[in-house]
Design goal:
The chain has 284 residues and is α+β, with helices and mostly antiparallel strands. The protein folds into two domains: 130 residues, N-terminal domain of MutM-like DNA repair proteins (Alpha-Beta Barrel); 125 residues, Helicase, Ruva Protein, domain 3, CATH 1.10.8. The chain contains six helices and ten strands.
Length: 284
């Protein structure tokens, strides 16, 4: 599932192609991607006709498309959702689900989703922040992100460190890939009990999270397959710079020990056994 860097790459791509454009029509080619819009596909389409998009916005992994009316289209990319920009009349993608056409007659914006775990919904009054995601914490790139507040929040959790980083109500935007990369940089085991960490250590973890995601942003994010691409269909290249994630058996870039893959929350965690040893106090 795309994490903060991948969603931010998509947001930046949509800024140029959506901002200020008036919707002429919306075509829903499959109902599942608008299943979160309780009133149904026809209502979704009718609400958007004639609306004008403002600049796309993001919090953590969540992207929304504000409208100048004060409402918004809330989006979730899921595992394979993509926004693609195409010239009007270009051939349809195999998994095209929703098409936006505009009054200026220019290029279309399309929502493509092979597995259909993602989707779109109309959020009344959601231009500033959709109510549906108001519980999501600010991310390390947010101008109002407060490290001291997040430090206190994480130390109160009494959980494993990686679990805390993945909890989007504590700090948003960090998923499995960037959590593993962050913890490798911080030289901490994923099961380290949060309450045993000093505030300065947690600040360091948050700093590493910011830095690793910023590095990913410079190369378009992480693409392991064609399911994540930007609005022009291009892949990101940060997988070439991953130190531990997906690197089972490869030598640790710091000390040469083979990277281990271990089960974690129905997925995997990757760590260096020397750099990130199992601590005395753990919370799995």
């Amino acid at each position: 599932m795309p994490e903060l860097p991948e969603v931010e790459v998509v947001r930046r791509g949509l800024v140029e192609f959506l901002t200020g454009r008036t919707v002429e029509s919306v075509e829903v080619l499959h109902p599942r991607p608008v299943r979160r819009h309780a009133a149904g596909p026809e209502d979704f389409v009718s609400r958007l006709k004639g609306q004008v998009f403002a600049e796309p916005a993001r919090r953590g992994k969540y992207l929304w498309l504000p409208l100048t009316s004060g409402d918004a289209v809330l989006t979730h990319l899921g595992m394979s959702g993509q926004f693609r920009v195409q010239p009007a009349g270009a051939p349809d993608e195999p998994h095209l689900r929703v098409r936006f056409r505009f009054a200026d007659g220019g290029g279309e914006v399309r929502f493509v989703d092979q597995r259909m775990f993602g989707g779109l919904s109309y959020s009344e009054g959601g231009a500033e922040l959709p109510a549906e995601i108001a519980h999501i914490a600010r991310d390390p790139f947010d101008p109002l992100f407060d490290p001291d507040e997040v430090v206190a929040r994480l130390r109160r959790r009494k959980t494993g460190l990686k679990r805390a980083l993945l909890d989007q109500t504590a700090v948003s935007g960090i998923g499995n890939i960037y959590a593993d990369e962050t913890l490798w940089r911080a030289k901490l085991h994923y099961a380290r009990a949060t309450e045993t960490l000093k505030p300065l250590q947690i600040r360091g973890v948050l700093g590493h999270a910011h830095d690793v995601m910023a590095a990913a942003l410079t190369v378009g994010g992480t693409s392991f397959d064609a399911l994540y691409v930007n609005v022009n269909g291009e892949s990101g290249y940060f997988e070439r710079g991953l130190n531990v994630y997906g690197q089972e058996g490869a030598p640790c870039p710091r000390d040469g020990r083979p990277i281990r893959r271990e089960p974690f929350m129905n997925r995997s965690s990757y760590r260096c056994p020397k750099c990130q040893p199992v601590p005395r106090h753990v919370r799995w």
